[in-house]
Amino acid sequence: MKFNKKILIIILSIILLAGAIVASIVLFSGTKADTSLFLESTIEESTKLVPLDANAKKNLIAEEGTATFKFTDQQRITVSKTYQENGTAALIIRVKVTLSEKQLSTYVENQKYAFEYGFISGEQKTTVIKGNASEILNLANGEENSGIVDISLAFGKTATNNISIPDGFFVTSGLKCQILNACIAPVNIGFDKSFEIPFFGFASNGGILAVNEDSVDFTGASLVFPSENTRENYMPEILVKLSDKDEHVSVLGSSVYVKLSLNGEILEIKNTKPGNEIIIPSSAFTQPFNKLTVVENAVCVRSILMRSFTNVHNCKISDQKGNDIFVPIRTDPGLILKWNVGNWRNVDYELFEWDRFPGIIYFDTRNYTVQDNFFRRLAFFAEKQGYKGRLLTNEELGTMHGFNALDYRPETLADFFNKAADEDFVLNPEEELLKTILIKNGLLIADGNRVKPGNGGLVSISRESYDALRIQLLAHEAWHTLFFADEEFRNYVAAVYYTMDPQSLEFLIDYFRSQPSLGYDVNDDYLMKNEFMAYIMQQSVANCGQYFVNHAWWNSVMAFTPDLARYVINTKGVGFEEAAKALNEFVFDKYGLVAGNTALVYRS
């Protein structure tokens, strides 16, 4: 049997963008008249492998034995090209284990029958994956595909970081085994049981094929992937896919968590239907190249795969100069909060991107000074009452502070940089770097010396904020970016805004007026709806009413709007709590998120 070339290319081209390469070999076509085993790839036409024994000529181990294949010179070139294009390369084989007529009568269910797959150089086995053929036989994700498995083995690297290509590969089985397909593809290490045909991937040092074990040995991953982040090379990421079955997912008021342990570091992942695929950068761990184990709710885990860093915007890493970085690390917001600053690629800031929402970029800065260098002038231009629409000089800005946390949509960012271009206004180096970063990541689109708004949103927080405040600020700003990006969410917020308790809403507007440091333009309808939503959603529903009661007691607020402040106090903020409940139900159903927290991953 052979992969359909057209389907393979289409699927691989799509899946490569999503990073789930293993799905690319799920579809294959019917039987060819020629029984030779072909080697598939995305960059060359399929070519015949060279069989080195009788079993290989038939692609079949009829009873027990070994089938050995050799790569042609052209196939070795194909492997090398795949490595050059992707930074990694692996050989994926699809095998089917069944029972011969003789084995039907002699098979012992609990007995171990040898299974091995590996590379050869000359007559020597250089890398081996060992398993139990009976475990493969009993795989039953679908009746038609029972006993079929995809196994990937990575090609190693030489001392000079070139790919090491063996002479060929072998398959040994103690039960009847058909070798159905072979394919060259980028490396994935781990398992994926979400498809009818399960996938198991190994680093270039091989390992143990345990089809029912919910753990992954990443100790050999440093032989395949970069082991540190540099300007040119990024450490790999780990894709975790969780079950979407009703009995395995969270509902409002009852959460389901999967707990992972990697060398003693514990992560908890909240499983929700809209958010059941999570990207964990390996650089989030202190020692990522170790064994990762699912220690709680393994039944919820469909896939754990380590793969190459995904640069979804195709930023040219080579364009980065000095210590500047343009390419964000994709991750869940929950990991940003406690990220090890020692792993930052720039001492002043680190760039992240929300793994579930491409284009939502997070700037985490070392302190408020660094943050102001990037964003202070923008903050006054975009938000500060009395300054909006103006580009203040450094002298005019003086010692004034922007905000401790910020968020901006592409339209606002484009207005700022276009005004600077139109007025020949000299921006500082950090602002010019910010413009480059935004263009590289699609929030802005270059248009001569001007820019057009793109897609996404920008968030900035600072390490100078204390931990509890960072949690609240990140939630507040992240909700703003979803408001920017999702029209359906904006419309729902508007509906709640117009139908909530009018006196509570009036109090909120007066609260904004009473705090000159906020500087919000209360006549900006878009801004008011956005801030209304974020102030409500930055804490849990249970804490929402009390949050506004506490603010109503402030002397500055009581002096500015005494009647409305007393109203909020006397009603215990119930108007805000009711609005929070309505918004909370919407965001949970659509995003799997809840008020007070935009994270799905938590570090214990």
Can you tag this structure with a few keywords?
604 residues; alpha+beta; 11-stranded mixed β-sheet; 6-stranded mixed β-sheet; 18 helices; 25% strand; disordered N terminus
- Spatial gap, N to C terminus: 48 Å
Topology, number of strands: 31
The number of helical elements comes to 18
Approximate helicity band: 25-40%
Account of the 3D structure:
By secondary structure, the chain is of the alpha+beta class. The protein is built from 18 helices and 31 strands. The strands form six sheets. Strands 1, 2, 4, 6, 9, 13, 14, 15, 18, 21 and 23 form an eleven-stranded mixed sheet that branches. It has a six-stranded mixed sheet with strand order 3-5-12-7-8-16. A five-stranded antiparallel sheet has the order 17-22-19-20-31. α12 packs across α14, α13 (502-514) crosses α17 and α15 (541-552) packs antiparallel against α17 (562-570). It is elongated and about 90 Å long. Mean pLDDT is 90; it is low at 1-33.
Compact overview of the structure:
The chain is α+β, with helices and mostly antiparallel strands.
Summarize the SSE layout with pairings.
Layout: H1 5-18, E1 38-40, E2 47-48, E3 50-51, H2 54-58, E4 60-61, E5 65-70, H3 73-86, E6 90-98, H4 101-106, E7 114-121, E8 124-132, H5 133-137, E9 148-154, E10 156-157, E11 163-164, E12 168-173, E13 176-185, E14 188-192, E15 199-202, E16 207-209, E17 215-217, E18 237-242, E19 257-262, E20 265-270, E21 277-281, E22 291-296, E23 301-307, E24 329-331, H6 333-337, E25 349-354, E26 360-365, H7 368-382, H8 394-397, E27 406-408, H9 410-422, H10 429-440, E28 444-447, E29 450-453, E30 457-462, H11 467-485, H12 487-499, H13 502-514, H14 525-537, H15 541-552, H16 555-560, H17 562-570, H18 574-591, E31 601-603
Parallel strand pairs: 1-13, 8-16, 9-15, 24-25, 26-30
Antiparallel strand pairs: 1-2, 3-5, 4-13, 5-12, 6-9, 6-13, 7-8, 7-12, 10-11, 14-15, 14-23, 17-22, 18-21, 18-23, 19-20, 19-22, 20-31, 25-26, 27-30, 28-29
